[in-house]
Design goal:
The protein is an alpha+beta fold. The chain is 20% helix and 22% strand. The chain has a domain of 181 residues.
Length: 340
């Protein structure tokens, strides 16, 4: 019996050894290149355009989409967007297009019309925690948002208009933090030095300056549009912590956004996982707005570029037209009252 047992063990060991020898060797983990300062090199042009929303649309059942669900999402988006989707690359040497007056032909989307992929899997939301892919607003925030939705808009003064209309922040909040995906001008350029990491965002030509080397934030009296960011390295990952967000700003995104409170702290993580991809992760900690800290993941892909000038103030007819409309209403008001 003992001899038979030893023979069985030997046969099993030989089989396991043969299986291990036949199995392909695991691919080595990607090692990011280094800058002249020895830090992981994140520099280059990147884009995060995709059909994935911050929050999970109701057509999806889980974080990973099925082929059928993704096809439904793409078809629905194309139907909604109509003729503003332009799949052809823009030739910078081409002449100016003809003057058009109808809105559907006035703009074009320059984005990847599919769900973003992480580890090859199509993501249905950037949010990974909570598991339902929804922003965990607390009851006070829900009530405030409902009341704000019912309130009349302020068209009388520029201060009452949104920061995007005033060219103070970008459409869709691609500059962050956190950096959202948008439908056009969705490129970002990362530049590194020993003491700073700069992220130049094409939309609204904003530049995020991240101080490296310490974790000391500036005075809370200062509230920059992009907040006060400090960064450090954890292995091959750039960790960025941002506080002191400007309370007049807020995050817009596909699938809904959220406001800032004075307690907001945003932590971002940039990890280069391949020659042509950065895994961008972020968490938002704001007990005045949410019931818990929530987390999200997003891939940033290498972009061909170049970065174009985004001259928001030039030809910005929206704001003066809105204010001009308010002045006409004011002039008409006495006449309307007198005629009653």
């Amino acid at each position: 019996m003992r001899t038979l047992t030893l023979i069985c063990i030997a046969v099993a060991a030989a089989a396991l050894g043969a299986e291990a020898a036949a199995a392909p060797a695991a691919a080595p983990a990607y090692k990011a290149p280094r800058t002249v300062y020895g830090a992981p090199d994140l520099q280059g042009l990147w884009t995060n355009t995709a059909l994935t929303f911050l929050q999970r649309p109701p057509i999806f059942k889980a974080l990973i989409a099925t082929d059928k669900e993704e096809a439904m999402m793409i078809a629905g988006f194309k139907q909604m967007a109509g003729s503003i989707i332009d799949p052809k690359p823009v030739d910078p040497k081409s002449p100016a297009p003809p003057v058009v007056t109808e809105a559907p032909q006035a703009d074009y989307l320059e984005m990847d019309i599919r769900l973003a992929r992480i580890n090859g899997q199509p993501r249905t939301s950037w949010i990974v925690d909570p598991a339902d892919g929804k922003l965990p607003f607390n009851e006070a925030t829900k009530k405030a948002r409902a009341e704000a939705a019912k309130a009349p808009e302020d068209f009388a003064n520029p201060e009452g208009r949104d920061t995007q209309e005033r060219c103070l922040t970008a459409i869709g909040s691609p500059e962050g933090p956190p950096m959202m995906n948008t439908g056009f001008n969705g490129n970002s350029q990362i530049i590194q030095t020993k003491d700073y990491v700069a992220i130049h965002v094409e939309m609204n030509h904003n530049v995020r300056m991240i101080r490296m080397g310490d974790r000391i934030h500036q005075s809370a009296v200062l509230e920059p549009w992009l907040g006060d960011s400090v960064g450090w390295w954890e292995g091959d990952t750039l960790v960025v912590e941002t506080v002191n967000m400007n309370l007049k700003g807020h995050v817009y995104s596909l699938g809904g956004g959220f406001p800032y409170s004075p307690q907001t702290k945003i932590t971002e993580r940039f990890t280069r996982t391949a020659k042509d991809q950065i895994l961008y992760e972020f968490s938002v900690d704001d007990p005045a707005t949410f019931t818990k800290v929530w987390k999200a993941e997003m891939p940033m892909r290498a972009a061909k570029g170049p970065i174009y000038e985004y001259a928001c103030h030039e030809g910005n007819y929206s704001l003066p037209n809105i204010l001009a409309g308010a002045r006409l209403e004011e002039k008409a008001a006495p006449t309307a009252v007198a005629s009653k």
